[in-house]
Specification:
The protein is mostly helical and 319 residues long. It is built from 15 helices and no strands. It folds into 2 domains: 186 residues, no CATH class; 101 residues.
Length: 319
């Protein structure tokens, strides 16, 4: 491919990828709002019921809040209904893959974000519904659901490690290399960032070493590189700031108002993230496949136990 053709392809891919954040701004705002709502709701329930939840099972019936917070009480039942709604919503994401009419609505990534949100919120709602007492079938269902939620966080992280087009199809290695070349050219054109700090940010482990890493170690290594990158980016930002500016940006962890500086830092951070994704691409895909093998059986087991618990409550007349 000629240099001109490569530059054109690189610009096209970069424009397409950079267009995603703007197009997803509304989704991000809605998602963050839902996270704030979920966190605030759970915190409010915890604060209200704290003096009740810390009581022993023998003392709870004597609490003035027992009538409201017990699983069959007004608040307890309400939390149970919310838990069921979240439970149904969680399974809409995998069902969407098999129902063509449902797949027409929204983007896969957006559905996954909501799926993860509900998966993280449900264990807390169910925990408050059960008044933090996990016994019998309900207790088994809760701990399985907790395992599903924890593994879901890992799965969402792995999903983000596999670069994708806007259509959610995986980028080819050739396109990844073209995109990386574009970011490299953008970095080479800037004169704001010190070369030594830039090299530290872009430094990656040896490819052959990564290929020999066990799956679990590779996953931990990826997460460590992401955490280290945050501190390296802050260091990169501090190198271009005065002491006062450094303090105002929390030692470089917050962005500045310097547009050109932030553009260069974003390009450097994107380059480092892309280098890591390309380096660990085969490992990420393998771990993601193994994750599906573990995540799905736990999800189905939770569904069976949850339905059994709900059915028993109806049969025994608790509703």
């Amino acid at each position: 491919m000629s240099a001109r053709a490569t530059a054109t392809a690189t610009a096209r891919i970069a424009d397409r990828v950079k267009a995603v954040p703007d197009a997803d701004r509304g989704h991000r705002i809605r998602l963050y709002s839902l996270y704030v709502l979920a966190f605030a709701s759970n915190l409010a329930i915890f604060i209200y019921g704290f003096d009740y939840y810390k009581l022993s099972a023998i003392d709870r019936p004597f609490s003035p809040k027992h009538h409201m917070l017990r699983p069959s009480g007004p608040i307890g039942l309400y939390l149970g209904f919310i838990g069921v709604a979240l439970f149904v919503g969680i399974f809409l994401y995998p069902i969407r893959k098999h129902w063509a009419w449902l797949a027409q609505f929204g983007k896969t990534r957006h559905w996954l974000d909501i799926h993860v949100l509900m998966g993280l919120t449900a264990p807390f709602i169910i925990a408050f519904h059960s008044t933090l007492k996990f016994r019998g079938i309900a207790g088994m269902a809760f701990w399985i659901m907790f395992a599903v939620s924890a593994s879901g966080v890992v799965g969402r992280y792995l999903y983000a490690q596999i670069p994708r087009k806007v259509t959610t199809a995986e980028l080819s290695m050739k396109e990844l290399q073209e995109l990386q070349e574009g970011l490299s050219q953008e970095l080479a054109a800037q004169k704001l960032l010190p070369e030594a700090d830039l090299r530290a940010l872009l430094r990656m482990p040896d490819k052959n070493r990564v290929a020999r890493l066990p799956i679990v170690i590779a996953l931990v290594y990826m997460m460590m590189l992401d955490m280290i990158r945050v501190f390296r980016v802050a260091r990169l930002r501090r190198s271009a700031l005065s002491l006062g500016q450094s303090l105002s940006t929390l030692a470089g962890f917050m962005p500045t108002r310097h547009r050109e500086l932030e553009k260069a830092i974003r390009a450097a951070a994107d380059e480092a993230a892309l280098l890591k994704r390309v380096l660990f691409l085969s490992r990420s895909q393998k771990v993601f496949h193994l994750w599906h093998v573990v995540h799905k059986p736990f999800s189905y087991a939770f569904a069976v136990l949850a339905l059994l618990h709900i059915t028993l409550q109806f049969v025994l007349g608790y509703f």
